[in-house]
Structures are given as structure tokens and as C-alpha cells.
Amino acid sequence: MPCANSAVATAGTVPALSDTGLRVRLASALILIPVALVAVALGAPYFDALVVVAAGLMAWEWARLCSGGRLPAAGALAILVVVAATVAVSFLPVWQATCIVAVGAALVGALAALTGGAPLWLALGTLYAGLPCVAILWLRAEPAAGLETLLWLFALVWAIDSGAYVVGRAVGGPKLAPVISPKKTWAGLAGGVAAAMAVGILAGLLIDGASPWVLAAAGLVLALVEQAGDLGESALKRRFGAKDSSGLIPGHGGVLDRVDGLVTVILAVALASALTGESVIAWR
Hints:
The chain contains nine helices and two strands; from the N terminus they run H-H-H-H-H-H-E-E-H-H-H.
């Protein structure tokens, strides 16, 4: 799955561009964001290939987090499962690809139990890496609004992250979840919500047939969903004593660190689309 900056809301002021860490983060973002957008625009097979790679890296990072930096046999199986499922989306109905992830997660858990690993955590990681990657490919393949849906979601997540970071740093104030992520503030959450609603209104004005007010409301809900995903991944790292999921992306950490909010947003939108039979951007 393409990377999205993690929402970080901290007290203090926005750091200057002379800050080395910030420059590294910006440089990485300037590379990753165009790659993601071009892949989304081109669609299959380019976007599919990018998601397959992201799925494998997500499963690899999760397995190493749960195994003290090692890749156990169950972790290797988790990688194979999520890669197979995301490849299968191109050839099988999406429900069958979803079943591959579900059955594979059970097999990963069983193997971990037999080999002395962390069966529940590794099974959960298989679902966490596989399901959103299957979902994002399904959303993109929708012929009527797949491209517009993903462009809206990417802009939404990036806006939430940026709004939370800027407002959180500038305003500070009470902490959102100090035990899980001590840097996040309620002000940052409010900034992310406001940015998400603004993107919804703009998307509704630019996309034919979309409602600015429906997408603004969706942005509000999805900003909360995104923040929950961010906190969930922070809780995982805290549970296993890790600062980042890996060091693959300079200045950003790992793939899991960058897609934590996008994962939950994609799942929420895919579920809503499946239940209603149409893309969220077509809602009235």
C-alpha cells in the first residue's frame, strides 16, 4: 500500500526547514508521494505491483516486531499469504482473495503455536497487512469511480496528517492518549478533522456527481478512524518496545509507520462501499 505520513500532533512550534530530520522527511515524501500518485493514476498492473510490494513489507515488519527483530517461519508464511492474496485480486473475485487472507492468518497462527512464536499477534498481522491491501485494489478496480475514490482518500489522509501535525505543534495543549502516544494532542486531532472536512468539500466540488457535504461528513468520521489506526500502530510498537516498525524509509521509519492511518481508512471505506453497493463519493 502507498505510504502516507503518520499523524503527529505535539506541543511546541512547527520546526524550521533547517531541521535535519524534517528535511530528510520532506525529501522522502517528495519521492514517495509522486510514486504513489502515478501508480494510482496508471492503475493495473503498476498500482497492483506497488500494493503487492507494500503488503509483503508490511507483513515482514509486523513479523519482526513480534519476534525480536527475527523473521520466524510463521512470519515468512505471513508474507507469502499476503502477497498471494494481493496477487489473487487480479484473477479472482475479491471475496476469494479475502478468504485467502483469513485462512492464511489461521495457518500462520497455527504454525507460530507449533514453533513457539506469538500465534495471536502473527495471525493478526497477517490480517492487518492483507485485508487493507486487498481492499485498496478492489476500490481502485471499480470502473466508475475507482480512481477518484483513491485520489480523495490519499488527499484526505495526507491532509489529516498535515493538519494534525501543524495545529498540534502550534497549539499544544492536553494530550490525546499519553500512555500510548505521548506527543499527540486534542488540538492536533481537531486540526486533522478540520483538514479532512476541507478536503471533502473540495473533492465534492471537483468530482462530478459528488456531494461536498456528504464528503465533508465522511471526512470528519474518517479523520477519527485514521487517528484510531495511528494509535493502534503506536500501541503495537509500545507493546514490543520499538520506536519504528523498521528503518526502510529515511526520516519516516517503516511502511507500517506510514500507512497506519491509511489502513483503517481504506477498510472503513471498502466496508461502507460493499454494504451500500456504491462508492462513498457517489453517496447523496
